[in-house]
Design brief:
8 helices, two-stranded antiparallel ribbon, Rossmann fold, 9-stranded mixed beta sheet, 13 strands, 2 domains
């Protein structure tokens, strides 16, 4: 005959024999060299019920708060000061409460890249802060990144990241347009808008990439109903900053969210140049911002808010980060 033995759980207690005697309901018994008490079970159950009640009665804003977006910033080779901008981007993203950020820095220019094999799979979003003349990633890493994006991963192309890797076909499809690194008409058409807001893909011969001196400029929202730009004013000031122009590339599956007028008297084109864009690559979403040359520029609300909203959209296809009152809270630059 099988006899079942019911074992009572034993809870280790730091209560001494003397203190147990003074507390009703605690039956002290010996368990080896340690004192235990049956009342500990009651205490444990009570604690569990209490903690559960905290969850049940928590404000909806806390209970429904989405999980942080797992983000990886990749950097290490850039003619811009990536070692200064990456920490600011990381702090900015984590401070808003929507992102948890790691950083992967590739070897220096004079070091072998063969061992640079970051794992993209744990992440929802990758921010690229490599730039002009960056050494190519190992093919294994390129393939892993392509799979990450095409399977639905989000990407932010930040400023000079559109200078990088002109010979990597898939990457150039992800960024839609870029500059420098030998880019020209063979890289794809020069993408811009005319004065009436019509998108132009100019396949004529010409360079890829250029900008005048840093200046303050007005950004015009072209897609006011997109989640990233919804709630932004029709026009807003940014800068002083570099205004990229003459950007070329495959220019497929791209939506221009906002532009700025590139003035000819500042080495510009006379056209409305893309400042904020989205691109589709497979199931993935890319947010491309040409703004933010250095730390002073990325601390401005005109960059910070558009960057954070673009990053959230790239990772989730939704935007919960609000546009602050008075955006961009930037007085006009004194002439």
């Amino acid at each position: 005959m099988n006899t079942k033995t019911t074992m009572k759980p034993t809870i280790v207690s730091h209560v001494t024999s003397q203190s147990a005697k003074t507390r009703p309901g605690l039956k002290l018994r010996k368990n080896g060299s340690k004192n235990t008490y049956d009342g500990g079970v009651v205490v444990l159950i009570t604690l569990v019920v209490f903690l559960a009640s905290l969850v049940d009665h928590a404000p909806a804003s806390i209970k429904n708060m989405p999980a942080p977006i797992k983000t990886l910033i990749v950097d290490g080779q850039n003619n811009h000061k990536w070692a200064e901008t990456t920490p600011v981007l990381k702090t900015m993203m984590e401070a808003c409460g929507r992102f948890k950020v790691d950083v992967s820095t590739c070897p220096a220019k004079d070091k072998a890249m063969s061992g640079y094999l970051p794992d993209f799979t744990p992440y929802d979003l990758v921010v690229v802060n490599d730039g002009y003349n960056a050494a190519p990633w190992p093919r294994q890493t390129q393939i892993a990144f392509e799979k990450f994006v095409s399977a639905g991963g989000g990407v932010v192309i930040y400023h000079a990241a559109d200078n990088a890797w002109p010979k990597w076909k898939a990457y150039n499809e992800m960024i839609a347009i870029g500059g420098w690194g030998g880019r020209n008409e063979k890289s794809g058409p020069y993408l811009y808008m005319d004065k009436d807001g019509k998108v132009i893909r100019d396949a004529s011969k010409g360079k890829g990439g250029g900008h005048g001196s840093q200046t303050e400029f007005e950004i015009t929202v072209r897609e006011p109903d997109h989640p990233i730009t919804r709630g932004l004013p029709k026009t807003f000031l940014h800068g002083p900053d570099e205004m990229y122009a003459f950007l070329r590339g495959p220019a497929r599956h791209v939506t221009i969210l906002a532009t700025a007028h590139s003035a000819k008297n500042n080495g510009g084109t006379g056209h409305e140049e893309p400042m904020l864009m989205t691109i589709k690559y497979g199931k993935g979403r890319i947010f491309h911002t040409v703004l933010g040359h250095a730390v002073p520029h990325i601390k401005k609300d005109s960059f910070r808010i558009t960057y954070l909203r673009g990053a959230e959209w790239a990772a989730t296809q939704k935007v919960t980060i609000s546009v602050p009152k008075g955006f961009p809270n930037q007085p006009p630059q004194k002439k």
